[in-house]
Write a structure and sequence with these properties.
With about 150 residues, this protein is mainly α. The chain has one domain: NusB-like (N-utilizing Substance Protein B Homolog, Chain A, Orthogonal Bundle). The chain contains 7 helices and no strands. The protein has helices at about 10-25, 35-40, 45-50, 50-80, 90-105, 110-125, 130-145. α1 (about 10-25) crosses α5 (about 90-105) and α6 (about 110-125) packs antiparallel against α7 (about 130-145).
């Protein structure tokens, strides 16, 4: 019998971040000019999510990333040595955009945003994703402190 202790299930914010990542990843396959709100609403993962709170959190993240993508991408380019945005794998780019939105435009602690990004990269990325994501986020975090 599975335990129902809180420690055995992901928190609402982690579920929301995972959902936001999945929606942001899927955006790479959209037709140009498609509205982000519409994409979010019709995403099968969003429609299947039982937690309204997780969906609301994911929605806020996705809309926030979309609104600030130019600033976020500039931060990525400034801290990724010899890597242009077009060369970064979609998984890592989606994770970076999500985490940098949280770091730069919300009150979520920087360490928490980085830790969550690393967890996403462990789940969805390859063996090198974690260190690549961590390196860029660490660089941005140091520049934010200044």
């Amino acid at each position: 019998m599975a335990s129902t202790k809180k420690g055995n299930r992901p928190g609402i914010r982690r579920v929301g971040r995972t959902l936001a990542f999945q929606v942001l990843y899927s955006v790479h396959f959209r037709k140009e000019g498609t509205d982000m709100e519409a994409l979010f609403a019709v995403n099968p993962l969003v429609m299947e999510q039982e937690s309204e709170t997780a969906c609301d959190f994911a929605h806020d993240l996705v809309v926030g990333v979309d609104a600030h993508v130019a600033d976020i991408d500039k931060a990525i380019e400034n801290h990724s040595q010899n890597w242009k945005i077009e060369r970064i794998a979609m998984v890592e780019l989606s994770i970076l955009r999500l985490s940098l939105y949280e770091m730069m435009f919300t009150d979520i602690p920087v360490k928490a945003a980085i830790n969550e990004a690393i967890e996403l990269s462990k789940t969805f990325g390859d063996d090198k994703s974690r260190s690549f994501v961590n390196g860029i986020l660490d660089g941005v975090a140091k520049s934010l402190k200044k």
